[in-house]
Amino acid sequence: MTWANFSEAELIASAGGDPWAINRSLQAGSPFQISRLAEAFHGAGRRTAEADHAFEDARKRFAAAWNHQQGGHPINDSAEVQRVTKSLGVQSEQLPKIGADLESIAAALADAQKQGDQEIALLDSELRGLDRIMTAINQDLTLDLPAAEHDKLEKLKQAVHAQAVDDVRDAVKQMNAIRNAYSDTLRKSMSALHNDGYDPPKAVDDWIESPLRRGEVRDLGPIAGTGGIPGIPGIGAADLGEVVEVPGQPGKYLAIFGDSFSGNKVGEGEHYRSVAVPVTFDADGRPHFGAPLTGAKDSGRELFPMPAEAVKAGVNDTLPAGTITLGDKTYMMVTGTQGDLKPVASWLVEVNGDPGKGWAMVPGSYRAAGDAPTQVSGYKGSDGKVYIAADSFDRSRGVTMYRADPGNVFDRSTWQPWNGSDWGKPGQQAVQVTPNRYGELSFREIGGKPVLSGFNVDAHQGSIEVRVGTSPTEMFGANAPTTLVAQNGDPAAPKFIPQPYGGYILPGSTLDDLKLFGSQWNTLKDANGVPFGAPYNTREFQLNPYH
């Protein structure tokens, strides 16, 4: 789409998502080819009444949604059926079931494509209308008008632009809902296909949006904050959202968000300096948030009560700055800031299942910003040692590494720094292991390998990336391949998301199916110098990282 008065890139950035890209992804599938293959399987083997009914039901849904665009058909249906028949042997009754499952996928994809096209057509129509209004306003602004009339037109112009952003944001929500509904059917049908003994070839995978291949990333859209689905009850703008399991309560999770607001943008409504939210995950790994367990600023129920040292130092905001997981205990770093998120000090708190009472500072863990890292992430490795990646909350330095004993993690004076060749003595200077500056970090052991996710300030003008290493001290070497998750440098390149950051690895992630939370904050200002303040959200990503 081209307009006289709107920029697609700016609308996407302001709305926090690209509905056109989501639709292009859906339209890339080929429901006709899937349906033809389904029919070939359905006609083979020993059919049952149940399989016939399932197939015919799916066929009707496919016929109602299909747009009759056939496309190419680069697979021989008969040969594919023969291949699977040979592999299944006497289990020919499975063939019609495979056909029914494939037809269900074809129907769901065709329906998603139909809904997607309708949603995009509606959006384009709305934007064309707003573009015409904007043109008329601009023409009127060239006239010699009284100052009051001129101001009215400028305000109307801003309102029209805001409506355009809202329309794109609503379309993102709808397109994500359409895609998620298709993904639900796809997951269930693919599971049934595998249970029936059918592993689709690459051509079929391409038709149905296959499971992620090595190095591929899928942006699942905002899940909290501006435009978030399902969102947090009572909170319209939020970022970060690192998920921690409550020690001693397996399966109970809390998401810890940073500065959050009851309105839909930064600064709108009640301000939570940080907030703990209960979260569960469904079978597809999608989060569902409960009501906040902690209160807004000055409510007496804040997540991070401010220690006396921080008050004396002039701290006016308290924010989560990473966790160190030990299995039986989890420590979270809190960074106290002032002004424009300038770190003043940091301290540790111990995670528990009652955040409403506040997580108080671990005695002795307070450090001024210049004396110790203000952002960390770490884990207890399979060798029994704790490995910690660290940097600065203001993203002014590279990553340093530390090692600690599990029983002394809370005592930062016992951490051993990595000096480039060995673990040094506590108190010695740590060597930065990367020349690039970093921000948010998430360091975990997955499948026996160290995995580091986080925000690389200097790559792609800011990017979220994941590295899988062979040892904790070699996360930035040749043996730690990097997967780019999101980048801010090139709007025309894949994985572009304006102003991304974060990258917290979610519980349950594997080396082949890793999920994480990233964030986005539009810090741009309008013509009057007022920050847009939105989108300000947390997004979910799914990837199969290089390793």
TrEMBL record:
Q: Which InterPro entries match?
A: DUF4185, Pred_hydrolase_N
Where do the Predicted hydrolase N-terminal domain residues begin and end? Answer: 3-193
Give the Pfam families listed for this entry. Answer: DUF4185, Hydro_N_hd
Q: Which domain of life is it from?
A: Bacteria
Q: Which residues form the DUF4185 domain?
A: 234-537
Under which name does UniProt file this protein? Uncharacterized protein
